[in-house]
Amino acid sequence: MERNRASAIVALAATFALVACSERLPVAPDGPPDGGARLVVKAATGSYVISFLKETSTGLAPAADAEPLGTYLVLKSEVRDDSGNLAQSGSVKYEYCWFEDDYAPSSRCDSGSGTWRRHMTVRVDPIGSLVGFGSCSTPRTIGFRFPYSGQGSGIANGASQSRDFTWLPLS
Question: What is the DSSP letter of 16?
Fold first, then answer.
């Protein structure tokens, strides 16, 4: 029995010697030359576009960047990968610009004098996420944007360009 144990130890030691001297370990995953295993998954860049819709008697319709007072504004986000495919997962956080206790144009926030405030965060919808903002009863311009968080979507986190919407006085 002692002899079998000794034979097993010698055989095990010989196996380790062969593995230790080999160029590649037979059970080790491929990794960088320094021996550390790294898994790098690079997210594809994307495009992030915010657009405006307005509520009409027949449903939603594209809105210009300026519409009459009382127009109900709906914000729409589209996130696409490099191939033009819409994001299937992740979230968008709609934000508006705020300066000195009031809504403000995006130039205030883009310059750093104003702050972006969260309006609402929603999960990505494969046809584009929609969020109602509301309407204004006084003429004003408000800046909007959205940051996107991909959360495993394969599309890099990013943000839309800021965009202004203006409620015009009624003529």
Answer: H
Q: What's the maximum distance between 2 C-alpha atoms anywhere in the chain?
A: 105
- Secondary structure E strands in the chain: 46-56, 59-62, 66-68, 73-81, 91-99, 102-103, 115-123, 129-134, 140-145, 147-149, 158-159, 163-168
Structural domains for the chain? 46-168 (2.60.40.1940)
Closest CA to 161 of 116, 114, 124: 116
Alpha carbons 77 and 91: distance in angstroms, whole number = 10
pTM comes to: 0.73
Tens digits of per-residue pLDDT, 61-104? 999 999 999 999 999 999 998 888 899 889 999 999 999 999 99
Residue carrying structure tokens 């594809």: 44
